[in-house]
Write a structure and sequence with these properties.
Layout: H1 2-15, H2 30-38, E1 45-53, E2 58-66, E3 72-78, E4 83-89, E5 95-98, H3 100-112, E6 117-120, E7 128-134, E8 137-144, E9 149-157
Antiparallel strand pairs: 1-2, 2-3, 3-4, 5-7, 6-9, 7-8, 8-9
Length: 158
């Protein structure tokens, strides 16, 4: 039910010229496969999307990785070998990447939603990565150039 409510919310945003980014379910590109191998990632990549880190616009990838014991984890793999742990997820992975402007439009849509509650408050110009962490809740993270790590910038619940 939460995923269908979010799908409706995202469709409304897209119709209004809003959110356009999402995660790919196709085979990961060779660049991502190489980054995962360099970071000694053994889990299967379920979903991925491109990420821009900081003002240098360094390319990276957000990924949803399946855990052998169920669920999995979200992380970002940077082009310089960094692996930023975002958080675990239970159940199915659902990952999306947004520009800060798209994330602000999604936040405005959340504020007017009758079924979803939450906020997304981007802190800079880097990509905002959002993923469901449990059946009825999602979290969003963004790279902080000051802290040189990802920080939580939002969440929403059904």
């Amino acid at each position: 039910m939460i995923r269908s409510a979010l799908a409706t919310l995202l469709a409304t945003c897209m119709a209004a010229g809003g959110v356009a980014a999402g995660a790919a379910t196709a085979a990961p590109p060779s660049e991502l496969v190489a980054l995962a191998a360099a970071a000694h990632i053994d889990e299967a990549i379920l979903h991925w999307c491109r990420v821009q880190l900081g003002a240098a616009r360094e390319r990276a990838y957000a990924v949803a990785l399946r855990s052998p014991s169920g669920g999995g984890r979200y992380l970002v793999l940077g082009a310089r070998g960094q692996a930023f742990e975002l958080g675990p997820f239970a159940g199915l992975a659902d990952l999306s990447c947004y520009t800060p402007a798209e994330a602000r439009r999604l936040d405005r849509a959340l504020q007017t939603s009758e079924t979803l509650r939450g906020r997304i408050e981007p802190i800079g110009r880097s990509t905002v990565v959002c993923g469901f962490v449990e059946q009825t809740g999602a979290a969003c993270w963004q790279y902080s150039a000051t802290l040189h790590s990802f920080v939580r910038v939002g969440d929403w619940l059904h």
